[in-house]
Design goal:
The chain is of the alpha/beta class and about 270 residues long. Helices cover about 35% and strands about 15% of the residues. The strands form 2 sheets. Strands 4-3-2-5-6-9-7 form a 7-stranded mixed sheet, sandwiched between helices. Strands 1-8 form a two-stranded antiparallel sheet.
Length: about 270
């Protein structure tokens, strides 16, 4: 059942953006509506918005057929939301998204994640979503454009990296649109980009997933070197490192090839434990 739209906000009680929290409040209603429309709202009943601020995106989420929860670390924003968004009563969580156990909110339920993410923690947000991928079928939101592009980038590009591989192994990643600095208060110094992640139907990898993360991260830690050199710390036998795949650089491998690489390494990683 759709919620009623909350009353219009009083501009005289605006929350002050705080630099140490990386806050840039979105002021464009059309863009807020477009972001809210990026999710399908199917296959789950609840949606979590990270860092709602004064609720410019929240108001459009409340029009969707989903139970909206918001998580906000800024007490001033929380106070504002509690007084302006009565429909959210009991679903405003004054917590740090990165540190809070989301299981206490959603238990084992499926839920989507959305937001206008602070630039300074946006990649950490993605890593936490990956950790909780069993519960998060959809994810969308606004990042620094460079970061959003990197997440969606394919192999062969200089921008392609750890986040690109790890995200694309479990989710279909799509860059949606660019947002200029002028629609924020205060305006950031760079463009922003909105992306959408949809979890794959079969997102269980045919390899040791913990080792997969290790192989990807270790490979890109020295991205200019071939895998033969960048993976030396894994203490692999010389005969394995002669395999042709080890002559590649990490940005040349798609996520499927990283899965194959992990499968080759796995017997030796297990025996070295």
């Amino acid at each position: 059942m759709k919620n009623n739209r909350p009353p219009r906000q009083d501009s005289n009680t605006d929350v002050r953006a705080k630099k140490h929290l990386g806050q840039h409040f979105l002021t464009d209603e059309n863009i807020a509506r477009k972001i809210a429309d990026t999710l399908d709202y199917s296959g789950y009943e609840k949606t979590l918005e990270i860092g709602p601020g004064m609720g410019v995106l929240t108001k459009y989420l409340l029009e969707k057929d989903t139970e909206v929860h918001v998580i906000e670390i800024d007490s001033e924003s929380v106070e504002y939301l509690e007084s302006h968004y009565l429909h959210l009563r009991g679903r405003i969580h004054e917590k740090d998204f990165l540190k809070h156990d989301l299981g206490s909110i959603f238990r084992e339920e499926q839920f989507a994640v959305i937001g206008n993410f602070p630039y300074n923690i946006s990649t950490q947000i993605v890593f936490k979503v990956l950790q909780m991928r069993d519960q998060i079928p959809e994810f969308s939101g606004m990042f620094q454009k460079e970061v959003a592009k990197r997440i969606c980038e394919k192999e062969g590009s200089k921008a392609y990296g750890i986040l690109s591989v790890l995200v694309q192994a479990f989710y279909e990643a799509e860059y949606l649109f660019t947002v200029p600095p002028t629609v924020f208060n205060p305006p950031p110094k760079v463009d922003s980009g909105v992306l959408r992640l949809k979890r794959k139907e079969n997102y269980s990898l045919p390899c040791n997933e913990k080792l997969f993360f290790t192989v990807v991260k270790t490979s890109f830690n020295q991205r200019r070197k071939t895998l033969r050199n960048s993976l030396k710390s894994l203490n692999l036998p010389d005969n394995l490192r002669e395999d042709t795949i080890f002559g590649s650089r990490p940005e040349q491998l798609g996520f499927q090839q990283f899965i194959e690489l992990t499968q080759k390494i796995e017997p030796y990683a297990v025996s070295n434990k």
